[in-house]
Design goal:
21 helices; about 525 residues; globular; seven-stranded mixed β-sheet; binds glycyl-adenosine-5'-phosphate; alpha+beta
Length: about 525
């Protein structure tokens, strides 16, 4: 599995994702999509929309506002219970999700270094001395408050996750190293033992609508797109004349005041969701739920996520949200471990009933067959555009050795790749080659996002396109345009990113061949035209 640092570095180097407000020191909880990143993320959203809205006759779209009437959040239950438990360090002031503290310690820089030291030969010889040396040396830098914790032997009661086998191991390691002074939880940042007891922290981001704060309407930036769909249920029903079962899809920004944003774009305070609220007749909900779980799982595989990196996880009864009858997560094996990519919940009739009660407007469906009104159940496949994009990136990242050199290649599905075709001139000093290549690029651009590049040698240009996942490069050379010795053959070379195979085809047939290639038929094209030998 690739390291997240490599993904972050490639994203910055190649114009996919930049740190927000970087010139001011950056904001850890927000990221900006660069020129290639915006193309890539747009492709993720466009494919989701095409497959879930345009290719189905039981789905319509919606784009609701981010700010909503404050009562929406009372009715939905967000104001009362949309919170995470947090704990704070009295020494360095950092905050953590109390339910994720073990992960945070386990993955912290100081704990990894400390553990490494404990496994080393010095600790095997004299543990006490090795720990003391570490505290005076590496530990001073990585965990400045760790020595204090050791000396005071600050004993904390377990917060959450005390049954986690890593917790037991953590205690064992610390007890061993501190001569019996057992400590439970240490600050993942500074090593201090002074972590506060867990308290709930609301994830809602407040905002004020109006010029004077004192008299302005206090509301919230939506933490999910779903509520915009529920409050528009009747509008959509009446205007579109839909019959159950049918769904409403939305893509849009959501905001959560996350306690610990991190892992690159995995958890941020501002992110984009791709959510479906699928309304069904009560009693058919369980069957529809399973259909959506299967459908959404297959979607990720369709666009290249490898089978071994994706799995389903059923929520335990005690972790179900207050509105859910059943919930299944699609998880992806991110560099930091298995984590949620999408949640698919059976929300029952909770939301429509709540909004009916709070707004006084009945949100019901008239069933023509039974001639009775009913409140539909809702199946909700809720995905994240940023998280999906991150999973696709991580899964596509490959390092290979080609002729003794490292090749980094993003094997993105061609529909996801930000650039579909790169047109490259073999010699940038040959005017005819350059002119032909630029014209070819302009023609191809009418159908696919194509770029022209002549800023390096052909070998480097290929590597650059490999690194950003461009599925096909088209090269124009001397033979294409001819010279004093031989006439133009009006053929170009197409190179396939994954196999690095090349075929030579006539420019006149390039568009129809590209049609085949964009449909995934490299092998067929290669068979007809023959693989070009170097
Ligand atoms: N309406 C249901 C709902 O919002 P959720 O599981 O909280 O459910 C759905 O969110 C998806 O939104 C997640 O699976 C994830 O992909 C994305 N998501 C949630 N919080 C996020 C965050 N802080 N940063 C990035 N993506 C997030």
């Amino acid at each position: 599995m690739v390291d997240m640092d490599k993904i972050v570095s490639l994203c910055k180097r190649r114009g996919f994702i930049f740190q927000s407000s970087e010139i001011y020191g950056g904001l850890g909880s927000a990221w900006d999509y660069g020129p290639l990143g915006v193309e890539f993320k747009n492709n993720v959203k466009r494919l989701w929309w095409r497959d879930n809205v345009h290719l189905r006759d039981d789905m319509v779209g919606l784009d609701a506002a981010i700010t909503m009437h404050p009562k929406v959040w009372e009715a939905s239950g967000h104001l009362a219970s949309f919170s995470d438990p947090f704990t704070g360090c009295a020494d360095c002031g950092r905050h953590y999700r109390a339910d994720q503290i073990i992960d945070a310690i386990w993955n912290s820089r100081w704990f990894r270094a400390f553990n490494k030291m404990l496994e080393g030969p010095a600790a095997k010889k004299d543990i006490q001395k090795a720990v003391e040396n570490w505290i005076q040396g590496e530990g001073k830098k990585l965990a400045p408050n760790f020595p204090q914790s050791i000396l005071s032997g600050n004993i904390r009661l377990p917060l959450e996750g005390a049954n986690d086998p890593r917790f037991i191991e953590l205690l064992r390691v610390l007890a061993h190293s501190s001569n019996g002074n057992v400590m439970g939880f240490l600050c993942p940042n500074c090593g201090s033992g002074k972590l506060s007891d867990p308290k709930p922290a609301s994830l809602m981001l407040e905002t004020f609508l109006g010029p004077v704060k004192e008299t302005a309407t206090k509301t919230y930036l939506r933490p999910e797109t779903a509520q915009g769909t529920f409050v528009n249920f009747d509008n959509v029903l009446q205007s579109m004349r839909k019959k159950l079962p049918f769904g409403i899809a939305q893509i849009g920004k959501s905001f959560r005041n996350e306690i610990t944003p991190g892992n690159f774009t995995f958890r941020t305070r501002e992110f984009e969701q791709m959510e479906i609220e699928f309304f069904v007749v009560p009693g058919t909900d369980e069957e529809w739920h399973q259909r959506w779980i299967d459908e959404r799982f297959a979607w990720y595989e369709k666009y290249g996520i490898r089978k071994e990196n994706i799995r389903l996880r059923e929520h335990e009864k005690d972790e179900l949200a207050h509105y859910a009858k059943r919930c299944v997560d699609i998880e992806y094996l991110f560099p930091m471990g298995w984590s949620e990519l999408e949640g698919i919940a059976n929300r029952t009739d909770y939301d429509l009933k709540q909004h009916s009660q709070y707004s006084g407007k009945a949100l019901e469906y008239f069933d023509e067959e039974t001639k009775q009104k009913l409140v539909p159940y809702v199946i909700e496949p809720a995905a994240g555009a940023d998280r999906s994009a991150l999973a696709f990136l991580v899964d596509a990242y490959h390092e290979e050795e080609v002729r003794g050199e490292k090749r980094v290649v993003l094997k993105l599905h061609r529909d996801l790749a930000p650039v579909k075709i790169a047109v490259l001139p073999l010699l940038k000093k040959n005017d005819r080659i350059v002119e032909t290549a630029k014209k070819l690029c302009a023609d191809l651009r009418k159908r696919w996002y194509a770029v022209y590049d002549d800023t390096a040698s052909i070998g480097r240009l290929y590597r650059r396109q490999d690194e950003v996942g461009t599925p096909f490069c088209v090269t124009v050379d001397v033979q294409t345009v001819g010279d004093d010795k031989s006439p133009a053959d009006e053929k170009v070379t197409i190179r396939d990113r994954d196999t690095m195979e090349q075929v030579r085809v006539s420019m006149a047939s390039l568009e129809s061949i590209m049609d085949e290639l964009m449909a995934g038929k490299w092998a067929e094209v290669a068979q007809v035209h023959g693989i070009k030998k170097d």
